Amino acid sequence: MTEEKAPVNGVAQQGARMLFRALDTATAPEVIRRMERRDRVIFLLLDGKRTISDIARLVHRSELDVAYTIACLLRTGYVERLGEPPGLW
After folding, report:
1. How far apart are CA 12 and CA 68, in angstroms?
2. Which of 22, 23, 56, 70 has the fewest CB atoms within 10 Å, i.e. the most exposed one?
3. 89 part of a folded domain
4. What is the CATH number of the domain that holds 25?
5. Which helix (H) or strand (E) holds 50?
6. What is the average pLDDT score of the chain?
7. CA 5, 88, 56 angle in degrees (round to 5)?
8. How many structural domains compose the chain?
9. Going by C-beta distance under 8 Å and a sequence separation of 6 or more, which residues neighbour residue 7?
10. In a domain, 88, yes or no
11. CA separation for the pair 40, 33 (Å, rounded)
């Protein structure tokens, strides 16, 4: 397993119900403009309420693909992990 894939597996192992949100410092227009369109679409949906599964369904991409993008955004410091939604178990 390469070092590049490790963060993706970590996000994927945390589960499709995991919640993330964009950090205020990353919501500046110049930061958002620098993102690839594929990443920006997911970034803008990270509101702390939508799960990886929800976002994958909205953008018509696989949960693994969304998890990969979120792992990249985590690595750059643009998002934070909040945990799972309350009341699932």
Report:
1. 8
2. 23
3. no
4. 1.10.10
5. strand 47-51
6. 84
7. 40
8. 1
9. 71, 72, 74, 75
10. no
11. 8
Tokens read off for 4: 């590049």
Determine the 3-state secondary structure of 58 from DSSP: helix
Q: Around 61, how many Cα atoms within 13 Å sit in the side-chain half-sphere?
A: 17
Per the listing, tokens 């509101």 go with 47
- CB atoms inside a 10 Å sphere around CB 43: 22
pLDDT confidence of residue 14: 61
**Domain assignment present for 64:** yes
Question: Does pLDDT of 63 surpass 80?
Answer: yes
Q: How far does CA 40 lie from the centroid of its chain?
A: 10
Contacts of 32 (CB under 8 A, 6+ apart): 26, 40, 43, 44
pLDDT tens track for 13-32: 567 788 999 998 898 999 99
- φ/ψ of 27, rounded to 5, equals -90, 5
- Model pLDDT, residue 62: 94
pTM of the model: 0.77
